[in-house]
Amino acid sequence: MKRKGANNTYFGNITEAFDTLITGLKTTWKHIPLARKKRSLENVDSEKYFEKQEGLFTVQYPRFEMPVPEKGRYQLHNEIEDCIVCDKCAKVCPVDCIDIEPVKATEEIGKTSDGTPKRIHAAKFDIDMAKCCFCGLCTTVCPTECLTMSQDYDYSTFDITDHNFPFSKMTEKEISDAKADLEKAMEEKAAMAREKAESRATSESSEKSADSTKPKAAKPKFIPRPMKKKKEGNNDDNKKEDK
């Protein structure tokens, strides 16, 4: 039984192959004269972007790049000088691509560009773009708007670990010094709390000892009052009434 559609004979298949080849070459020959001119670069926001459907479309990347929209979801960038290490971006990230190690400072360490005080060191602030799903939630919750999406879209590498971008500028010595200052401040705070507790305990014990040395006040003695005697005249009147 002969199948419908495809030509299943030997020479029929050869004929069909030539027919499809000639049909495809006709389309190619039609565009060859138009491919002598290079297509001008137009931004996707331009109204004429989809009008130019003819010309050379190949771009010699990376020497030439196609313009991309300014408000796109590309590589994340953190302006660490404006970061207050609030950890909101790491908490809202659905894929856990942001890794932060905060170290509390013992005093104010500076201010951001909008005047927000900085009280936490960013010992570690890494963003793994290999995990990023480009949802943009981290840029939305950032209170100082230091976390943004840049226009860098090509960060391809041979090693996937190179997609982990560190933004912290602290050295190992600065991190260790900040941790040591924090531990010292915590120890001093604990010592002050112990001193307050001890002074409170001593004051309470001294008050108790002072109360024990005071002579106890004598309890008032209860003296029952004598009952009043009823008058005899009243009793006689009552007896007459009974009779």
Describe the structure.
The chain has 243 residues and is of the alpha+beta class. Among the domains are: 4-34, no CATH class; 75-172, 2-Layer Sandwich (Alpha-Beta Plaits), CATH 3.30.70. Helix content is 35%, strand content 12%. The protein contains five helices and seven strands, in the order αβαββββαββαα. The strands form three sheets. It has a three-stranded antiparallel β-sheet with strand order 2-5-7. β3 (110-111) and β4 form a beta hairpin. The chain is elongated and about 140 Å long.
Low-confidence stretches: none
Indicate the percent of residues in helices: 25-40%
Using the CA coordinates, give the radius of gyration: 45 Å
The quaternary state of the protein chains shown equals single chain
Q: What would you call the shape?
A: elongated
On the 0 to 100 scale, the average pLDDT is 81
The total of helices stands at 5
For this structure, what is the CATH class of the domain at 75-172? Alpha Beta
By DSSP, the count of extended strands is 7
Kindly name the structural category.
alpha+beta
For the biggest β-sheet, the strand order reads 2-5-7
Largest sheet, described in full?
3 strands, antiparallel
Query: What's the CATH topology name of the domain at 75-172?
Result: Alpha-Beta Plaits
Strand content range: 5-15%
Question: Any guess at the CATH architecture of the domain at 75-172?
Answer: 2-Layer Sandwich
How do the strands and helices of this protein lay out in sequence?
Layout: H1 10-31, E1 76-78, H2 88-92, E2 98-104, E3 110-111, E4 117-118, E5 120-128, H3 137-141, E6 147-149, E7 164-166, H4 172-213, H5 232-242
Antiparallel strand pairs: 1-6, 2-5, 3-4, 5-7
